[in-house]
Design goal:
Blueprint: E1 11-14, E2 21-23, E3 37-41, E4 44-49, E5 58-62, E6 70-73, E7 78-79, E8 83-86, H1 94-103, E9 110-111, E10 117-118, H2 120-124, E11 127-130, H3 133-173, H4 180-186, E12 194-197, H5 198-201, E13 202-207, E14 213-214, E15 219-222, E16 227-228, E17 230-232, E18 238-240, E19 257-261, E20 271-274, E21 281-283, E22 287-292, H6 299-308, H7 310-315, H8 328-332, E23 335-338, H9 341-379
Parallel strand pairs: 3-7, 15-21, 17-20
Antiparallel strand pairs: 1-11, 2-8, 3-4, 5-6, 5-8, 9-10, 12-23, 13-22, 14-18, 15-18, 16-17, 19-20, 19-22
Helix pairs in contact: 3-6, 3-9, 6-9
Length: 388
Amino acid sequence: MVKQTISEKWLMKKLSEVCPLQRGFDLPSSALIDGSTPVVYSNGIHKYHSEYKVCAPGVVTGRSGTIGKVHYIDKNYWPHNTTLWVTDFCGNYPKYIYYLLVYLKLDQFCAGSGVPTLNRNDVHSQIIGVPPLPEQQKIAEILSTWDEAIEKLESLIERRNKKRKKLLKQLLFGHGLGNTKLIHKLGEIASPWNYQPLSEISKFINRGITPDYVEEGGIKVINQKCIRNASVDLSLVKYTKLDLTQANENKLIQFNDICVNSTGQGTLGRTGLFNGTDKVLTFDSHVTLIRIDSGKADPVFISYFLHMRQPYIEALAEGSSGQEELSRNAVNKLLVPMPPFGYQQKVGKFLLTYDEETDGLTNSVDLIKKQKQGLMQKLLTGRVRVKN
């Protein structure tokens, strides 16, 4: 339960006296007429209608389905019947009310065992501290500045991710190599490229162990959940007791090894390059490990190529629905491009650096969001006062 600190000059009121909430309006799909008015559902704006029900500004939160998300609307809108909307700001600053409801974590007032529903009566009965209007405006201004910084970074990340898709196609498949800047940076390449089976450029291709997992201690085990976004996420590892005297190098992951999810729907075919510093890791039987012979091909280049081929690799799975499996033989036969070795190295380094830069931006967003959450707690409880 979120609590507020009583601060000097803050009035204590029920939330119903500050920003009463009301159920939204029915709008079946058959009655929807395309227009410019945003229709706000429990999880945000997804459709537009030809007329509005409420004048801006508005604050809306999910009533059923998605609970806890709060939306600030700056144009006339239609709150859907899956939402609750603020009917009266009672002289308070609308953007401040938005941040207040975000801070209160409305999902804690969820009721119902089937479809979750926000209990409006419980929300209305909450006693909250209300600062003077000038202080509300200043708090909203401060928090809006943080949101703007987050939005700019998220927009930059989105643009980089779109560009990444084009780069992967261009550099790994030779599509559109008329980009003179990249050619200047990476060097001209011969076309068409030769293709070789993975088995001919790999030291070995192996499935992992069937571990006895333990809660703590032991060594790390790479599993399917770890393999995502062309990399290996060690925050999702499990642990096992493994007798290292009986474990050969084919069961221990090394730098620049490629992991491939080899069972399961949806995740089968995902690949990830391990470029961490951990010395002792293994991998379970749902993962195939590919160790590229670095004298024959660049592991980073091959890893990115396989990453782009996930749909194709997934289609190679055998077995009944829900029990599909990628055989080692199918992995051995996978064809990979073999442009000049120097080009492979340059492309691999370029893409790896690009992803690391994007990851850095993502980490910055996460840090700013965490800092903003701490600031909200101080500002919205009166622990830190702002000058009007």
